[in-house]
Amino acid sequence: MGLDDLTAVASVFDTPGDLINYLEHRGDMLVAHLRPKVHEEYRVIEYYLEHLEGLLIARARAMNQELSVSDVTPYANEMRTIARGQHPDFAAGMVIDDVIRQLHDVDDNLRMPGAQFAGGRAHYAEVATELSGVTRPRRIRLGRTLLDLIDKASTSGRDTFRTIRSQRRDQCIMLWASLREPSERAERAQDLAMYTTLAKEYYGLSKAFGIATEGYVGIGRSYDVVLAEFETMPSDEAERLGLAIFGPRDALT
User: What pTM does this model have?
Assistant: First the structure.
């Protein structure tokens, strides 16, 4: 690939998750089939996007994994819309980009309680690495959900929560728009660790992310993020609190 080819790839696949998807398919399938010359990367990209459902399914089968058309169609459709510059909510995904960017500016005073949440740069680097793998379509959905929570908290005067869960990934992301004052950010970070652990235990998943931000609209925004992937055990207390805070368990999304 030449410089123009690299520019073409970076302009379409702007997250590590989407880029890795493309490069893996390019190396395994597309180059042998299309035999692109230098400066022909747009042709490869167009073919990839047009046939994305079939490529994802074929590569999954080659790795002894099963994906159906219904599993891959939403991602494929959104990637095509994004590549055309026509996604109506593209800007919402930039919220998650901002979360990841702020993770590299760590306040060492905001330490999570307990051995599981050591806090500090090592923990935040691990979370940033995990979140960087989130694809652009998923970032858009997460960003839109968080923006809606902020708006709801701002108008209702109450903290708002939402958990987005994936059975296939065996994980959830717990979003929290908090009305705590900026002076109480350390307390917010501690509560985030508690709520994230509770979400992991309540839904019985292997991994849980927690993202907290201010529940009001204004200039400047901070994010606290935590990753819980240590072992938790179901309990009656987690069941009671989880139901009160997150509501009844519904279909996994």
Answer: 0.85
